[in-house]
Amino acid sequence: MIDSKHLDTLAAIVGRENLYSDKAHLIAYSYDATRERFEADAVVFPRHEQDVSDILRYCNTHLINVVPRGAGSGFTGGALPSRGGIVLGFEKHMNKILEIDMQNMVAVVQPGVINKDLQRAVEAVGLFYPPDPASQEYSTIGGNVNENAGGMRAAKYGITKDYVMAIRAVRPNGDIIKAGKRTIKDVAGYNIAGILIASEGTLAVTTEVTLKLLSKPKMTKTAMGIFGSVKEAMEAVYKTMAGGVTPVAMEFLDNLTIRAVEQTFHKGLPVDAGAILVTDVDGNLEEDLNLQLSIIEKIFRENGCSEFKIARDAKEAADLWFARRNASPSLSVYGSKKLNEDVTVPRSALPELLERFYAIADKYQIKIPCFGHTGDGNVHTNVMVDGKDPEQVKIAYQAIEEVFQATIDLGGTLSGEHGIGLAKAPYMHMAFTPEEMALFQDIKRAFDPNNILNPFKMGLV
Ligand SMILES: Cc1cc2nc3c(=O)[nH]c(=O)nc-3n(C[C@H](O)[C@H](O)[C@H](O)COP(=O)(O)OP(=O)(O)OC[C@H]3O[C@@H](n4cnc5c(N)ncnc54)[C@H](O)[C@@H]3O)c2cc1C
Question: Which end of the chain is more exposed for a tag (fewer CB within 10 A), N or C?
Answer without folding.
Answer: N
